[in-house]
TrEMBL record:
Keywords: Glycosyltransferase, Membrane, Transferase, Transmembrane, Transmembrane helix. SUPFAM superfamilies: Nucleotide-diphospho-sugar transferases (SSF53448). The chain crosses the membrane at residues 263-284. The gene is aglI_3. Pfam families: Glyco_trans_2_3, Glycos_transf_2. Residues 16-130, 172-284 form the Glycosyltransferase 2-like domain. This is Glycosyltransferase AglI. It comes from the Archaea.
C-alpha cells in the first residue's frame, strides 16, 4: 500500500543536517561551511564524532565551536552515528551528508521540493566527483540478484545520454547525501545498526519501499564528493579487508531479510560461490583466521536477516533486481581487485 504524508507535515519543513566525523576534522569543517551557505535554511547542523583521535577532536572543537558537536565514546559506525544524530535532531527533514562532501546554494532547496510530495520517503541528489565536476560519482542505484548494489552511471559524463536529466524514482540512493523525512525514518527504525558501514543506505531504501514509500533521484540537486576521503585515512585499501568484510556480512543479512526466498533458492549455488570468493581473498591477504571470522559472521547475519523478515511487505521493488551471467560476475570480482590496487597506488 502506498504511503502518503499529511499536508501539515509538508507546509514549511525544517531541515537538520547530520554529518559523521571520523578523523576528518578539516573536511568536516569545509562540509559545514558549505551547508551554512545553503539557500534553503538549515535549522541545525549536528556533527557526530565517532570516537576520533584526540587531536582530531581538538581540531573539530576549535574550528566548529558554533556547531552542535556530539562526541561518542566509541565508534558506532556510519549507521549508529547517523541514528544518534537523528535522535538529537529537531528538524522535520534530515539531510545526511558525508564529511568529504560539499553542497552548492540550491542543493537542499530542490531536495525539499521533492520530499514534499506525498508518497516520497527519501530523495538523493546527483553526486559528482569533486576533482572533476563533469563526472558522476553517485546517483541512480541498481541491485543484482547476489545483493551487490552499484551506481550504473559512476564515472559517466554529466550530460551523457544514458544519465537521467529529470527527477525519477530509483531503487536506492547513497547515504553520502540523502534527505529523509524524520518521522518516516523514526517509524522504520532508522538505519540498521548491524550494518557498521556499507549497505545500510541500500537496506534502508528497501524498507522504505516495502512500507509503501518511494525514493527519488533529483539530478538538478548537485553535491560534490571527495573519493572515499571520509574513510580512507583509517582503511588500507591495498588489503581492504575492512571493506570486504563489512560489505559481505551486511550483504548476507540484506539478502535474507529482503530478497524473495524463491530467488535466493534459485541462485543459491552462485550466491555461495560469491561469498566463498571473497572469503578466499581474505584468507589470501589476512590469513585463515580472518576468513573464518568473516564466514562465521556471514552465517550469523544471514540468520538475523531471516528472523527479521516481515510478512505483508510491498515487494514491487524486486522487479528491479538485475540478473548477470557467471562470466559477468567473474569480471566484477576481477574489476574490484583492480580497483583496490588502483586506490592503494593513489594513496601511496
Amino acid at each position: 500500500m502506498e504511503q502518503t504524508r499529511s499536508e501539515n507535515a509538508t507546509h514549511s519543513p525544517t531541515v537538520s543536517a547530520v554529518i559523521i566525523n571520523y578523523n576528518t576534522a578539516e573536511l568536516t569543517k569545509r562540509c559545514v561551511d558549505s551547508l551554512e551557505e545553503s539557500a534553503y535554511p538549515i535549522t541545525e547542523i549536528l556533527v557526530v564524532d565517532n570516537a576520533s583521535d584526540e587531536a582530531d577532536q581538538d581540531k573539530l572543537t576549535a574550528s566548529l565551536s558554533h556547531t552542535d558537536l556530539h562526541f561518542l565514546s566509541e565508534n558506532r559506525g556510519f549507521a549508529g552515528g547517523c541514528n544518534y544524530g537523528v535522535r538529537k535532531a529537531t528538524g522535520d527533514y534530515i539531510f545526511f551528508l558525508n564529511s568529504d562532501a560539499v553542497i552548492i546554494s540550491d542543493t537542499v532547496t530542490k531536495l525539499v521540493e521533492d520530499l514534499k510530495l506525498s508518497s516520497v520517503g527519501a530523495v538523493v541528489p546527483q553526486v559528482r566527483l569533486e576533482h572533476d565536476h563533469d563526472l558522476i560519482d553517485k546517483g541512480i542505484g541498481a541491485l543484482d540478484e547476489l545483493g551487490f548494489g552499484w551506481h550504473p552511471h559512476h564515472l559517466r559524463p554529466v550530460g551523457a545520454e544514458e544519465v537521467p536529466d529529470e527527477t525519477c524514482e530509483t531503487l536506492w540512493g547513497s547515504g553520502c547525501a540523502m534527505l529523509v523525512d524524520c518521522a518516516v525514518f523514526d517509524e522504520l527504525g532508522g538505519f540498521d545498526e548491524d550494518f557498521f558501514m556499507y549497505v545500510e543506505d541500500l537496506e534502508f531504501c528497501l524498507r522504505l519501499q516495502e512500507d509503501g514509500w518511494t525514493v527519488l533521484y533529483e539530478p538538478d540537486s548537485v553535491v560534490f564528493h571527495g573519493f572515499s576521503q571520509s574513510v580512507k585515512q583509517k582503511v588500507d585499501y591495498g588489503k581492504n579487508s575492512f571493506q570486504i568484510y563489512h560489505q559481505n556480512i551486511n550483504r548476507a543479512k540484506m539478502l535474507t531479510k529482503h530478497f524473495p526466498l524463491t530467488l535466493l533458492a534459485k541462485g543459491l549455488p552462485i550466491l555461495i560461490l560469491s561469498f566463498l570468493y571473497w572469503n578466499l581473498i581474505l584468507a589470501w591477504r589476512d590469513g585463515i583466521v580472518q576468513a573464518t571470522r568473516a564466514f562465521s559472521c556471514e552465517l550469523q547475519y544471514a540468520v538475523r536477516g531471516l528472523r527479521e523478515r516481515e510478512a505483508g511487505r510491498n515487494m514491487e521493488w524486486t522487479t528491479e533486481i538485475q540478473s548477470k551471467s557467471f562470466a559477468e560476475y567473474v569480471g566484477i570480482g576481477l574489476d574490484k581487485e583492480d580497483f583496490y590496487k588502483t586506490v592503494k597506488d593513489d594513496n601511496e
